[in-house]
Structures are given as structure tokens and as C-alpha cells.
Specification:
single chain, 137 residues, mainly alpha, two-stranded antiparallel sheet, 5 helices
Length: 137
Amino acid sequence: MILVDFLVALVTGLILTVIFWPRLRKSGLWANGAGWAEFLWFFLVVFLASWLGGIWAAPAGPPLWGIYWVPFLMAGFLFALLLAATAPMRLPHVRRETPAEAREEPTLDERTFIVLNLFYWLLLLALLASILAHYRR
């Protein structure tokens, strides 16, 4: 059952990531050349959220090969929609600084980046822990 859940979440995550890719690519985050890395990170979060929602939500919709796929799709879609809604609509302002300015203490933007990065990793760990808790019971 774990393998089937994994495959359904994998396909759901991939489909949703491909659907949301054009909108996010036009945003400021993915407009540069580093788009594939962001694609993979976005896919990872949507995949794990889809898997988590699919295994913890009540079965709904018609079963396909013995698996209820609607909870996987709805959880992944809601999470992808939430992530896409928070993406910036334009390119962020890139500040050019001298080496002396770079040695100064971190600015608010750098602290914000560090906090959001930490939040991202905590989110991934929480999703994984919740998935493991489901199969452990």
C-alpha cells in the first residue's frame, strides 16, 4: 500500500507542478536561469503535501485501482495554490553592494531569507514525520 500511495502522490505532484510551472516561471522567483532547482523544490513540497493529504484524509471520490485518488489531488492542489499565491508578481530588486557593505551585519532581507529557509526545512520535516507516523500505526 505504501508503494501505491507513493506512486499516486508522485504522479499528482508532478502533474500539479507542471500545471503551476508557467505561472511561477513568469514570477520573479523563477524568471532567472535557476528555474529547475526551484521546480524540483516546489515539486518536493507539493509531492509530500499530496502524499500526506492522501493518506490522512477520509477516502473520497471513485477508487482507481483500489486507491482513492481525490484526497491526494485536493491536498496537492490546495498546497500548490497556496505556494503559487505567495510567489512575487515581479522580479525582486537586486542590490549591488561593495565588499565593505557585504561584511556588515545581515540586513532585514538576509534575515528574512534565513528565517524562510528554516521554515521551509521545518515544513519538509513535519510533512515527512506525519507521513511516517501514518504508516507506523
